[in-house]
């Protein structure tokens, strides 16, 4: 059984508007049989934090194209993307790079 994981989850570049305008969330993910990864975190975010228009944040089981994901200030592409195993006190930042005109 994987222990609970405490994280800071942040949203920026307009993505915070989908989360009631709240940019920073201190969250504790509960115990579960397998270790927490980004794939499971995204499901948890969708169920627990996302307030409106999930299609603007997620596509399938990942984030939409145009949303930059940083894990502890490093691009998630360098960290294994959806398969990155979350560690206690990680900081996960989602930044929308899409802007209306």
Protein model, in words:
Belongs to the URM1 family. This is Ubiquitin-related modifier 1. The modification 1-thioglycine is found at residue 101. A hairpin with a 2-residue loop joins strand 5 and strand 6 (74-75). The protein has one helix at residues 38-48, and strands at 5-12, 24-29, 58-59, 62-63, 67-71, 74-75, 90-96. With 101 residues, it is mainly β. The strands form two sheets. The chain has a five-stranded mixed beta sheet, with no helix packed on it. Strands 3-4 form a two-stranded antiparallel sheet. The mean pLDDT is 94.
The structural class is: mainly beta
Helicity range: 10-25%
Under CATH, the topology is which? Ubiquitin-like (UB roll)
**What is the 3D form?**
globular
What about the largest sheet?
5 strands, mixed
The CATH architecture can be given as Roll
Specify the CATH class. Alpha Beta
Order of helices and strands: EEHEEEEE
Strand content: 25-35%
Report how far apart the termini are.
48 Å
Helix count from the secondary structure assignment: 1
**Which regions have little confidence, pLDDT < 50, spanning 5+ residues?**
none
Our Rg estimate from Cα atoms comes to 13 Å
**Global mean pLDDT:** 94
Strand neighbour order, sheet with most strands: 2-1-7-5-6
Q: Looking at this structure, what is the CATH superfamily? A: Beta-grasp domain
**Number of beta strands:** 7
- Overall tally of domains: 1
Pfam family, one: Urm1
Family: Belongs to the URM1 family.
Subcellular location: Cytoplasm
Keywords: Cytoplasm, Isopeptide bond, tRNA processing, Ubl conjugation pathway
């Amino acid at each position: 059984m994987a222990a609970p994981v405490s994280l800071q989850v942040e949203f920026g570049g307009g993505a915070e508007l989908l989360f009631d305008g709240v940019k920073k969330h201190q969250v504790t993910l509960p115990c579960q049989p397998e270790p927490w990864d980004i794939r499971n975190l995204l499901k948890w975010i969708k169920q627990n934090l996302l307030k409106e228009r999930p299609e603007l944040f997620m596509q399938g089981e990942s984030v939409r194209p145009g949303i930059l994901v940083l894990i502890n200030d490093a691009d998630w592409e360098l960290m294994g993307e959806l398969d990155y195993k979350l560690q206690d006190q990680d900081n996960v930042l989602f930044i929308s790079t899409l802007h209306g005109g």
